[in-house]
Amino acid sequence: MKKHNFSAGPCVLPQEVFLKASEAIMDFNESGLSLIEISHRSKDFVEVMEKARSLALELLGLEGKGYSALFLQGGASMQFLMTAYNLLENKAGYLNTGTWSEKAIKEAKMFGDIMEVGSSKDENFNYIPKGYAIPEGLDYLHLTSNNTIFGTQIKKFPKTNVPLVCDMSSDIFSRQLDFTQFDLIYAGAQKNMGPAGTTLVVVKDDILGKVSRKIPSMLDYQVHISKDSMFNTPPVFAVYTSMLTLEWLKDLGGIAAIEEINEKKAQLLYSEIDLNPVFQGFAKKEDRSNMNATFNLADDRLKETFDALWKEAGINGINGHRSVGGYRASMYNALSLESVGVLVDVMSEMERKG
Ligand code: PMP
To answer: Does the beta carbon of 74 sit less than 6 angstroms from any atom of ligand 1?
Structure first.
C-alpha cells in the first residue's frame, strides 16, 4: 500500500510522474534505449532540457522577461557559495531565518562582508523578522522564503532597490508571487520539483558579470547560460523527472491551482493543531509555513501512543528535525488533501484517547 508521505525531502512526487519516469528508465520515447543510457547531446534529451527550462520560466511567469533557467548540480548548498561567488563584490545582506540561512551566510562570508539585516535566532527561529532596515548599496539581499526545519514562511517580501536573491528550495511552485521581484531564485529539486540531483536556478541575466573576481567555469552562471545548461553532462534523470513534474503542474492549472489545494491542506492541519489540546504549534501563527507544519505534543508521555497510531495509519516522515524536536508534517505540492485528512483523523483520535 502506498504510504501517506509527509517527508521533508526528498519527498512525495505525483504518482503519474513516478510511473512515467520509471517507463523512461526502461524505454525512453519508444527508442529501445533507456533515458539513462543515451547521450545528453542527443536530440531527445536536448528537448527534455529545453522543455524543463522553459516550463520553469513559464510557470513562474518569467518567460521573455530577461531571465534564464538552469538545472545545475551540487544541491541548494552549492548555491550558497555560487550566489556569492557571482554577485558579491563588497557587501551583502542576509535575513537569518534558520539553519539554511546560516549555512548560506557562512559560505558567503568567504567572499565579502555580510550583514545580518535581521534574525529570529533569539526564539529558535519560530518567526520571521519584520520591519528590518535594508541599507542602500548592498550587492544583494538574500532571503530564505520557506524555512523547512522550523516551519516558517515569508508571507510579505521587502520592497527594496537592492537585488533580491531567494532560496526557495522548499516552497517553489507552491504559491503565487510576483516572481519578477527576485533577481535570482534557487531551489533544490527534491521537494516540489523532482528527485535529488539537480537544482533549479532562475537568474536575471543583467545582474551577472559585475564582480571583479575570476570565476571558475563550473561556478559561473554566465558559462552555464551560454551553454544552455549543458556545459557538462547534466543529471539527466533528475532533469527529466523535474520536467514531468512541471508538466503535471501545468496540466493541473499551474501555480494558481496548486496554491488553492495547498491552502486547503494547510488550513485543515493547522486548525487541528490549534483546536486539539493534545498538540501545540511551533511556529508563530502569522509566519507559519503552508509547506512544513511543525508541532509538538503538549505532554511528551503521549509520544509512544501517537507514534504507534500514525504508523498504523500508513503515515511516513512526520518526525521533527533534531534541532526542533516534536513533529513536522511536510505538505508539498504532490501530497494529497486526503493524506492530510488521514493525519488529522489520527490527531483527533489522540484527543479522544486524551
Ligand atoms: N535550503 C533549504 C530551504 C532547504 O530546505 C535545503 C534542504 N532541505 C537546502 C537549502 C539544502 O539543500 P541541498 O541538500 O539540496 O543542498
So the answer is: no
